Amino acid sequence: MNSRPDSTPKPSASTGFPIALAPIVAATILLAGLALPAGSAGPGTAPPPFLWRDVALVCFLTAIPLAGALFAGLWSKLPARLFPPVGLFLLGAIVLAISRDALDANAWNRTFVSLCGALSLWMLCSALPLPGAVSSGRLRCSAGVLLLGFAALLILPRVYIDARCRRDLDRLADLLDKVRLGEAHRLATRILALDASAHLRDEPLETILPRLSGVLLQLQGELDDPLPSSPAEADLLQRAEALAILGRDDEALDLLEELPEPRSPLVANLQGTIHETRDEWALAQRSYAAAIAALGDDPESPDTQTELRIARLGIAVCCRKLGALTDAERHYLAALQASPDADTHFLLAQFYEDTQRSDRARAHAREAMRLEPERFREPGAKLIDKLQTLHFGCFGAYREELRR
To answer: What CA–CA distance (Å, rounded) separates 95 from 100?
Structure first.
């Protein structure tokens, strides 16, 4: 008597494992990183625990191997129909937690969320009808594979975050030098959340941030005071400066536009500075040129000289960014002739370093270090070291350094 074949599928060691899911998971994470909504602090940011979109992308990509190893271990032990709903649940829980800012920005939260997110994508993609599977009997979730995946997930994001924090600290120093305190405060908060031991100019960032917060509160208090019914230019200019310091650029520019023509050099220079910080180089150059025109042909007072120097250096920076290097050099040299201080020498050193003129860059960096060693010893040494290691013509820089 012939028995009917059993139609119930039985588990087998030859069950196919969809290895083609790996590039699909990676591509999905890349697309999700591009479409990830910005955090509350603006473009490029992300909600906790990642804070930056690029940090989130690196964490999720480095979680793919470990999540794949865990998925391979579960593939031969659980029914395939369970993977999509479990993956959907995991993904929903992660999205809910991130959208509600329920997670602190620490390394363990980033690791946990990244691993769960990558694993959920593996599970969701398992529902795709993919050809070309390999036998699950040859894919084993061994301790060695798990250890390597876990090490990659812990080490690689940390290396990336350390490099990012060093770059952000340079940006923070630049914002503080330009008195862009609102943007500096937001950036410092994020740096400290990613690296609690961060230092800026040999001072712990955790001691700088409270002082910065105090200054911002004081400025905000000044803005809360109403303007006079008929405010003078000085009142409007002071308020616009406070708004710019707090990073409220649009409000500051709108306030300056209310001033009647012709506007003073102080107003034009402030407009140029705001446009410059927004990378609006053509508008900034136009404002700085208006400041020089308003100063006249023969400025003599110290205040006038200060405004003229600001305008010349501003035009030089704009010309440099717009690719007009000859004009940029001319304005830098004019500013140096009028004010041969350490700041102008170092700006020229940076300009010549950027344009591959190593000898001149080294000479101006050395002069800045000589005039103000406390401020420029370290940045000057870094610039000279960069000249010696990266630029064409570096042998000349080596020879000059060896002669010293």
So the answer is: 9
